[in-house]
Amino acid sequence: MGTDIESKQDVYNMYWAIFCGIIIATGLVVNAFITLVNIIDWSRERSLKLCDKVLSVLCLTRFLLLWFFLLELIGGFMQLIHFSAFGTFCIFYIFELSLDYFSRWLAMWLSVLYYVMITISKHALVLRLKSRIPMITRYILGGSMLISILAATSFSLSGEEYPCVQNTGTNVTGNVTSQFTQPFILTSVFLGQCLPYMIEIISSLYLLCTLFIHVKRRVSSASSPNMDAHWSVMRYILVLNLLSMCNFLGNLSIWFWMSYNDLLGISLGYILVYSYPVLHSIVFIPSNSKLKREIRHLFHCTKLFCCSMKDQLDSRAQTVPQRSV
């Protein structure tokens, strides 16, 4: 009976690892593609739009983060984490968590940047913010990186008496905390996940309100509004918020259910967390004319390559019978 349960568990772990590996591999390709397109464009023009700069930093951060996810997935599947030194594991996890938090802050600032640029509000504060965004962006990104590192480091202090600093001689399994309400964990979750999620929600709600007010004014006027652009922006905002909410719930699910050793809750949480850097980056492609053009060009080149390979195989298949004759 115990052998059957263990075999079913091994099969489940294998399928789960394969599924998560496919998600991570897709994310590596998507984020590498966006980063390379912007790097090539910068090498040609020697300049990039502000949104493209932030998007490039975001995709590069996610590319590195997904490699950490892949290493963690391989280590967990091959049961290597349990044999690693706790100090090494803490350093690895602080880097991974810092990249995760920093990518979350970058995604939030990129969404806010898009919202501010397309908002129709004539408020003096919004207009002033639009004019000062290019000057303060580097300071915002630097501050976000510092907050991410501090939040990740505070998570490493979540055990008794700083386990990542003092208990370097023990293994990982002996230092897993079971108290979700510890102050260091709450500080890390708030700074790394809750705060950027709240800012993104507030900014998106403000943009939706300005869009509704703008549409209402145009409907009341003599001219009939073209709603296609407005509905496109609204769908875009809702998709970004839905993905951010799924990532937020996924992280909370991992941290919460890990204290109860609930395998299903932890697995669903990891799937949501692994999917977020992939799907969120894919959403930016249709809204970016340059990326859309390059992806069409890539598909066209791939189609031509496949057609040429098919023609070569057909020609070889026709020459073989002739030689035999």
From TrEMBL:
Molecular function per GO: bitter taste receptor activity; G protein-coupled receptor activity
Topology in membrane: Multi-pass membrane protein
Gene Ontology biological-process annotations: detection of chemical stimulus involved in sensory perception of bitter taste
Localization: Membrane
UniProt key word Transmembrane helix: yes
Record keywords, A-Z: G-protein coupled receptor, Membrane, Receptor, Sensory transduction, Taste, Transducer, Transmembrane, Transmembrane helix
Pfam family, one: TAS2R
GO cellular component, one term: membrane
Keyword Electron transport (UniProt): no
Residue stretches spanning the membrane: 15-42, 63-94, 106-127, 139-157, 195-215, 236-257, 263-285
UniProt record similarity statement: Belongs to the G-protein coupled receptor T2R family.
Name of protein: Taste receptor type 2
Encoding gene, per UniProt annotation: LOC108716287
